[in-house]
Amino acid sequence: DEPFRDQPMGAFCSGSLVGPDLIMPAGHSIKSEYDCNNTKFVFGFGIYQEGVYPQSVPAVDVFSCKAIVGRAMQGSGADWALIRLDKTVTNHKPLAINRSGSIAKATPLFVIGHPAGLPTKIAGGASVRNASPAGYFVANLDTYGGNSGSAVFNNTTGKVEGILVRGETDYVYRGRCRVSNVCANDGCRGEDVTKISALSHLIPALENEQAEPEIIFPPEPPVCQESAKAGIGTQFMNQLKDMARSGSPAQADSIDNILRLGENKPVRVR
User: Residue 209: pLDDT band by 50, 70, 90 thresholds?
Assistant: First the structure.
């Protein structure tokens, strides 16, 4: 009854390319310099023709670990690693990530990785169940051991929202056989995904990536004379209002709270 039962298993974890020479796996997949020195990172372990299973990959798609750029494994929280490869990847494009620092409940998701070490699988139809935990969110993704390190994508934007790191028990016994543990979309514990914001500061922006414009505030008014302070203060507030009208919604909210503080009004919390 198990799909893919006749396919080869060749991976122990998953990962994704987020820079020309940067791979993003789970922190528990690469724990030490020993792991770095003894792990190969392979692209292209997938099925490209029905019934033809991979037995090897080209040497050009095999890379070694040069260094661990960063890593965290915080109990039941964030779990990630960032690996610098021994050479630049020229035949695969890095993935774009969500740099907003936030994700909402019910955000539609899909995941790409190697469940149970199988050739690449894509699983969609999932969504965020709980976005509130620090460092990770919970989703109803269809993932297994071997998916650790899989990139979890926003189905609307196509950007990476996080890294699959742990979840529900994969198999249960049916008589003397182990079979997949099937859960309802709102059942079981769900799958935990490290939020990309935990390590986005270490991932360089892509060449064609448009970052959120930086808010550059006008200079503060001088305080040497009360009359000058009052007049330039009004000008400063008007400049802020103009910036709020022309900026992004997030910038407008930030500027609006600054204005409300200047008018001794309570700030708005979203």
Answer: confident
| Spatial separation of the C-alpha atoms in residues 108 and 95, rounded to whole Å | 18
Report, as an integer, the average pLDDT of 128-136: 97
When pLDDT is cut at 50, 70 and 90, the band that residue 207 belongs to is confident
The SS3 call for residue 116 is helix
Tokens 């103009």 identify what position? 242
Structure tokens, 78: 């964030």
126, 142 contact by CB (below 8 A): yes
User: Most distant CA pair in the chain: distance in Å?
Assistant: 87
Share the mean pLDDT of the chain: 85
Structure tokens at 129: 């169940």
**From CA 254, how far away is CA 198, in angstroms rounded?**
22
The residue ranges of DSSP E strands in 167-207, in sequence order, are 171-174, 177-180, 191-195
Interval 251-267 mean pLDDT: 49
Q: CB pairs under 8 A, 24+ apart, for 258-267?
A: 262/237
pLDDT band per the 50, 70, 90 thresholds, residue 1: confident
Give the CA dihedral 19, 24, 30, 32, nearest 10 degrees: 50
Report pLDDT for 268.
Answer: 47
Q: How far is CA 58 from CA 13, 18, 44, 45, 54, in A?
A: 19, 21, 8, 10, 11
Which amino acid appears at position 87 of this protein?
K
Which segments of the chain are extended strands (E)?
16-19, 22-24, 40-42, 62-73, 79-85, 108-113, 121-130, 136-139, 151-154, 160-166, 171-174, 177-180, 191-195
How far is Cα 109 from Cα 188, in angstroms, rounded to an integer? Answer: 18
